């Protein structure tokens, strides 16, 4: 995905930035000067409106400001690396040094969500963040991104599939949802459920001793149902979940099933208003 998106002109290393407002103005001016947006005033307003909804410093030292606006010409990411951190109006997280700034017209919503999800996952990796902060020039940044590039399967199979995924470990649901979005699944239905083994261990007194075998795991599960147009997406999802320490190959964690679909009536896709 990075190979398709990244533009060397949108990598800025060690600019002089005083504060968050200065950062936003500088970012918007920069992408405007490189013809990625048509109207600076409207775009920065959209960016600030998004920031009022929730602060986009999503992890200590890292911010992912983003917005979707039809004043944007196309999907872009602008990467800013600061020598000295700036206050990002989030005392719990501390000063920001790494900024991944995203913009997108409304028509690229799905790819936009995938890029946000992939960036969020990579930036949670401490080694990845350290490498970026040590970058001396733009090419260093590009090399790091391409090294971690994750290509999303785009071609469609002639067959269609329904994916049923059962997860018994639901403590990190947000990681699961992020992985779904990253592989392009935004049409899933999510049902809170319980497996028969959980019911036996937690709710039937005669089998109460089995609870010890659950190792204090949650008594709840998640069942995720989605339509796939490429069965390789399921393998991609399983591999991503492993990066979040959710290994479906381990007993009791969960599983994925694919069922061939003969016919679909209606439109299974949903629009997400950003």
Keywords:
Mannitol-specific EII, Chain A; Alpha-Beta Plaits; four-stranded antiparallel sheet; 9 helices
Number of helical regions: 9
Strand content: 15-25%
What's the architecture of the largest domain, going by CATH? 3-Layer(aba) Sandwich
Number of domains: 2
Low-confidence stretches: none
Let me know the number of strands: 9
Shape: globular
- Roughly what percent helix? 25-40%
CATH class of the largest domain: Alpha Beta
Oligomer: single chain
Order of helices and strands: HEHHEEEEHHHEHEHEHE
Average pLDDT score: 85
Rounded to an integer, what's the Rg over CA atoms?
A: 21 Å
**Major sheet description:** 5 strands, mixed
Describe this structure in words.
- The protein is α/β, with parallel strands linked by helices and about 270 residues long.
- The chain has two domains: about 150 residues, Mannitol-specific EII, Chain A; about 100 residues, Alpha-Beta Plaits, CATH 3.30.70.120.
- Helices cover about 35% and strands about 20% of the residues.
- It has nine helices and nine strands.
- The strands form two sheets. Strands 1, 2, 3, 4 and 5 form a five-stranded mixed beta sheet that branches.
- The longest helix is centred in the middle third of the chain and has 15 residues.
- It is globular and about 60 Å long.
- The relative contact order is 0.13.
- The mean pLDDT is about 85.
